[in-house]
Amino acid sequence: MSTKLAIPSILLVAFNAPLGAPVMSPPGDPSGALSRSTRNVMSEFYMGDAPVPYSAILRTHNRPPLAAADFPSWRVPHPRDIIVLGVRNAASVMLSAWFVRFDCAPHHLVRLPWGVAHELSAVIADAVELHRSALYKLFPECYFSSTTDDFSALATGRFLRKARLVGRAARARRPPLHFPTPPCMRDTPVDSVCAICLEGGGTLVKNCCVPVCLDCHVGRMRTLCPVCDRNVLNGSHTCMCCMEAVPFSEHGNQCVSCPSQTLCARCWCDFGECVACDPTAGVLL
Fold first, then answer.
1. Nearest to 239 by CA among 266, 272, 264, 276
2. d(CA 106, CA 1)
3. Would the pTM count as exceeding 0.85?
4. Phi, psi of 90 (to 5 degrees)
5. In angstroms, what CA-CA distances link 189 with 24, 100, 140, 192?
């Protein structure tokens, strides 16, 4: 090919995720077991002027950058040199795009031109040994999808917003989660063992149906009854950031921009926003 080497902006591909109305479970992580740091959210890579979050890197083999001198014009790189970025569109579909990096600017990701991506896709499709590659099975280039989204604009907007949210969170302290004990659940000694941890000898509360120790009542049950609220405790809950279904133990974490507690633990650690706060998300409710 005679296409000249350029540094285009970055793109990403998408997956369908389960949608549904948010389940308002009690706040998550009451004991503060989860921890997050603003220092491990954004990677060292850039897509144009936008820093790329680690959560947007869907696939990489951590290979050294390509030698720019070997690419006077575009040619098909090895599949292991491909870095895949992903971002969700307004319909919560994950879009993915293929990138490489060069030694002249090792921290800047360069998206493959359409022609090069098409040739690489053909190489992967023809080589049976590459059919197990994530590029073939999981992360196709969104050039070839039916989406009409502008990946570069969508990804740049999301990445820059993520960087602003992380910077704002770095200057703020996380308020402690507080679980007031309802009057009907005052600390009443019960001559029994905890129905959750099966430990005795401590102060227990008669939590509706069964006695539960204070640690389990607040930390594991989040003030819910293990009998009456078993549908909530054993059910799946939709994270209103990634739209994935997660168990109760991972749900109920607070959005970084509002008081709603509808995020999973992974999105909370990644300083995620709910769809009501994310200006690039669709109206899913």
1. 264
2. 24
3. no
4. -65, -25
5. 30, 63, 60, 9
Task: Report d(CA 214, CA 220) in Å as an integer.
Answer: 10
Using an 8 Å Cβ cutoff, are 110 and 7 in contact? yes
Q: How many domains does the chain have?
A: 2
Asked, for residue 281, whether it belongs to a domain, the answer is no
* CB 268, CB 28: distance < 8 Å: yes
Q: Three-state SS for 44? A: strand
Q: Are residues 60 and 106 in the same domain?
A: yes
**Shared domain check, 18 and 158:** yes
pLDDT digits (tens, 9 = 90+) for 76-125: 999 999 999 998 887 778 889 999 999 999 999 999 999 999 999 999 98
Residue 90 domain flag: yes
Strands (E), the chain: 12-13, 42-47, 50-53, 57-59, 83-88, 94-102, 105-111, 204-207, 210-213, 236-238, 245-247
